[in-house]
Inverse folding.
């Protein structure tokens, strides 16, 4: 049985981030890939949308300069024919501050001929920002 | 295939929910449905963890009461076995001032006996809170650091 494209992509992505070895990942990314990590780009410049392999490889390089992945646990995963969705809990270190960060993310990946063509990442960004700044954000609560 | 059936069930559920038919949406759920959404519940107290139809009815009625228009696009839908994941782009128009709120949700649905038994959501909460509360949180962070 052929291995799903997600597993090759996942291994290559973590190798590119943790070991700064992007060659495996580069071979798995389509030239016209659409990529988006939703979140505040003024606080995290490696969030946002990217189009095309060079832009995606550059953003992976930026992520590798900013975080190290210690552990990730897949809480839910669905594999389609040429697509996949996962909900995961990540344990990271922010390299500039050496702060530990724990966050839940979800991603959607689409593949064509084994190459990544579309990648969407949702992050609990309010929690991420609070962990990054190191204190709770106080705002007026919405009335029920 | 089971996957195709569940994909269609999610699309039907979303059509019904976003049309404003809370009871219709609840009829697609098990009695003990569980809802878990990451969200700052101190700011958005109607969100968080809910269990059972009564709790879901209360939450969804609250949401619908705040918005005069709700719709969603589903750019990606992935199904495997009894589970479906949907990437939703939602558009809510506030009743209070007519402004449109737009954000993305990752929604993971689990089915039991043809009904939705669990919904788990991951949301770009920073963007959502900024739009819902109409506050520039980045500016708040610059001027509201604790002593």
């Amino acid at each position: 049985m052929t291995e799903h494209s997600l597993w090759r992509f996942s291994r290559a992505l973590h190798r590119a981030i943790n070991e700064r070895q992007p060659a495996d990942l580069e071979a798995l990314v389509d030239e016209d890939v659409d990529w988006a990590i939703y979140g505040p780009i003024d606080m995290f410049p490696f969030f946002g949308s990217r189009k095309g392999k060079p832009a995606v490889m550059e953003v992976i390089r930026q992520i590798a300069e900013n975080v190290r992945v210690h552990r990730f646990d897949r809480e839910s995963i669905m594999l389609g024919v040429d697509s996949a969705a996962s909900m995961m809990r990540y344990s990271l270190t922010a390299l500039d501050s050496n702060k530990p960060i724990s966050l839940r993310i979800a991603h959607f990946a689409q593949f064509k001929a084994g190459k990544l063509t579309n990648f969407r990442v949702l992050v609990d960004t309010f929690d991420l920002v609070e962990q990054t700044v190191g204190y709770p954000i106080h705002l007026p609560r919405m009335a029920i | 295939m089971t996957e195709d059936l569940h994909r269609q069930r999610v699309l039907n559920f979303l059509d019904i929910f976003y049309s404003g038919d809370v009871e219709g949406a609840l009829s697609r759920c098990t009695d003990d449905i569980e809802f878990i959404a990451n969200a700052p519940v101190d700011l958005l107290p109607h969100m968080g963890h809910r269990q059972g139809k009564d709790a879901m009815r209360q939450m969804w009625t609250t949401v619908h009461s705040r918005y005069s228009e709700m719709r969603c696009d589903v750019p990606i839908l992935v199904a495997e076995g009894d589970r479906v994941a949907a990437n939703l782009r939602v558009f809510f128009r506030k009743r209070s001032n007519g402004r449109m709120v737009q954000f993305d949700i990752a929604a993971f649905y689990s089915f039991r006996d043809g009904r939705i038994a669990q919904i788990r959501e991951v949301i770009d909460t920073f963007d959502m809170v900024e739009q819902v509360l109409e506050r520039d949180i980045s500016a708040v962070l610059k001027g509201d650091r604790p002593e």
